[in-house]
Amino acid sequence: MKGFGRSPALTLTGSVAGAMVVALDGTALTVAQPTLRGDLAASLAQVQWAGTGYLIAVAGLLVFAGRLGDRHGHRRLFGVGMLGFGAASAGLALAPDMRWVIGLRVVQGVFGALLQPATLGMLRASYPPERLRTALAVRTASIGVAAAAGPLVGGALATEFGWRAVFLLNIVPTVLFGVLALASREPARPDPGGALDLPGALLLGLALACLVHTLVTLPAVSWSAPLALLAGVAVVRHERRAVSPLLPPDVIGSPAVGAALGMLVVASAALNGGLFACVYVLQDGLGHTALHSALLSLPLPVLLVAAAPASAVLLRRAGARATVAGATAVLATGLLVLAGAFGPITFCTGFALVGAGFGAVMVAATHVVVRQAPAESAGVAGGLQQTAMNVGPVLGVATATVLMGLGPARSPLLVLALAAAAALPVCRALPRRPSRASSAVSVPPAGRRDATHIDLDVERGPRGRSLGDHEI
């Protein structure tokens, strides 16, 4: 039987399975929370901490987990993460009270942090540049399918079998792909040359965990806000002086990677904050049932899935800069449509635009982050991408919560649309599609250094070489 290392298709299947397990778990559990609360006689605060504890554990460990994958192998980290996630899920299905649920959700978050960067690191190592964007598009589409199916699957399982069945859903795929990953031989890796930056990992984890806690507890003022700021300053100072920094300069020093991460935060904040506001607009404001609201929002996941392969084509033909900018404009337009929507047609149109825009941004920006980073730092790049995708939703929901406390339920839609539009200039730092002329110039004659080709706007590979038209 072929292992992950010998079969790119199996590697992609494992990456998709890992991404879908995490996405399905989160969305399915959201629907099952009322049943869980009633069965365990839990308070609303306890239920919220089950989610908050998971988010803090994930956000604090993603980048460090990515660095571990770079040093010790992405498949190994993926296998351990999948098996640990499945074991925590089994424990949650047997949890006797809410204290066990909160504790095991934190454990689940730790193993989720191990497997998520590895799903991108494995793809970066297994696919050549001309096929990487397609693999990322498949992964993104699968996340859209899981996000759409999660509420339906979670609701059906919780109704028929109880909330514990939601966690049992994770066990088979995590065990199957975890064992396959660990059974595959990890390729030989170069000596990382330096000790693991544990102080940097602790400082960064503390900063991100406190940031997530601060956002989750808004609009209340939290003790974690000043601690997040102090830890963030300490991270910057430490990383500048570290011999073997957790965050390699060739990753965080890349304007393209920074811009792509920023756009991922903006897009995911706009999507999740907008959805949060729409729930209240549709149900409290317009009197729709939860089922009717879900049906009206169905175009969002459908267009998100459809946009993923379309984005891979746009990346090849137009480049990352035009793709991300255009998709962000579509996302902002969708939020503006939702801000003024009252009938089914306008709501469906708005949700469709939001889904299409977000799906394209996610594929294109993720491609930039993973492709621009050197192969030996693919895990850190994946960890940064996953961190952006975890911080963005928390930021969006926190923004919507504050704005809805100050004004109408539709106000977050307008503000988030304007924020997305205001972020468009950031796209100028993303790589553009090189013209045939620039591609020709970028290949110097044999024996001569390419001293004249300094166009930093053209998309480059991990060694600084300009990518050809077929590689974008």
Automatic annotation (TrEMBL):
Stretches assigned to coiled coil: none
Bias-annotated ranges (Low complexity): 437-446
Segments of this protein annotated with the region Disordered: 437-472
Biased composition (Basic and acidic residues): 447-472
Domain called Major facilitator superfamily (MFS) profile: residue spans: 11-434
Compartmental location: Cell membrane
Protein name: MFS family permease
Lineage: superkingdom: Bacteria
Membrane protein topology class: Multi-pass membrane protein
InterPro entries to which the protein is assigned, alphabetical: MFS, MFS_dom, MFS_trans_sf
UniProt keyword list: Antibiotic resistance, Membrane, Transmembrane, Transmembrane helix
Organism for this UniProt entry: Streptomyces achromogenes
Pfam families: MFS_1
Primary location group: membrane
Transmembrane feature ranges: 48-65, 77-96, 102-123, 135-157, 163-183, 195-214, 220-236, 257-282, 294-315, 322-345, 351-370, 391-407, 413-430
